[in-house]
Amino acid sequence: MFKFVLLIQLIAFLGTASADVEVAPQIVGGNDARPGQFPYMVSIQTAGYRGSHGCGAGIINERWILSAAHCLLNDRTELYALIVGTIRMDEDGDVYSVEQIVRHPSYVINVPPFYTSNWFDIGLLKTTTKIIFNEFVRPIPLGRRRITGSLPAIAAGFGAYSPNITIDSPATEWVMSRHLQYMPATIISHNECNIRTSFFNALNPFYLIKPIIHPTSHICTIQPASGLCFGDSGSMLIADGEAVGVVVSGVRLCGQVDAAPDIYTRISSFTGWIDNYTNELN
């Protein structure tokens, strides 16, 4: 349900003046989340169109939310609605408006066929009012240590979950989850991620999505028979109770190719940049 197949690079989420939200990939092979299980979870939607999920995000504190830069390409703050405190994208929860949008200054919008990577794909949203915390709404601590080896993790999101999704599936066959899903995953080393990604790229010479793993800004996971898919972009990867990654790419085609990894922006490489904005709550 979580495969971010980077079609979002072709059609930018909220990238036009239209009120329509472009859907970025979600989790395949996941499980239904329980109320309050992932209280940091945010659904980024189009203002005025409840259920129009485009990307996920995570609550950092009372005013700031972390997501992927490619989810925040439109600078018109009035187009965004942030839904928190619910495991259903189309009902319950609280809605917050956006005051400020910040994309990492090194993030570059690349469009296929020239697309090669999703480096520095991280961004922030500031809410117009303070987020009210309760048992269903809470911030997630940021992982500040660099993870270098194998480590169990978990990811949650509202992405597509159809087991029939393949590289040749038309968009009409993607089944978007209305219920928050989660999946266990295993963080792998930078070297293993490089090998797996290079192998996948070599097997698909005409495939437009050919990520290049950044030496410091990416972190990767694998998990047989499950993976990120459309709608999962911007969601958090959690390890030891901390957010360690932001979903940016699911090159495994929504869990259909076990050898290929899911790719995230490595949060520990950007905590200084994040702190510069989020330490000021007002």
Automatic annotation (TrEMBL):
Gene Ontology biological process: proteolysis
Keywords: Disulfide bond, Glycoprotein, Signal
Pfam family, one: Trypsin
Protein name stated in the entry: Peptidase S1 domain-containing protein
Superkingdom to which the source organism belongs: Eukaryota
Stretches assigned to the Peptidase S1 domain: 27-279
Family: Belongs to the peptidase S1 family. CLIP subfamily.
InterPro entries for this protein: Peptidase_S1_PA (IPR009003), Peptidase_S1_PA_chymotrypsin (IPR043504), Peptidase_S1A (IPR001314), Ser/Thr_Proteases_Immune/Dev (IPR051487), Trypsin_dom (IPR001254), TRYPSIN_HIS (IPR018114)
Cited PROSITE patterns: TRYPSIN_DOM, TRYPSIN_HIS
Signal peptide (from-to): 1-19
GO molecular function: serine-type endopeptidase activity
Originating organism: Chironomus riparius
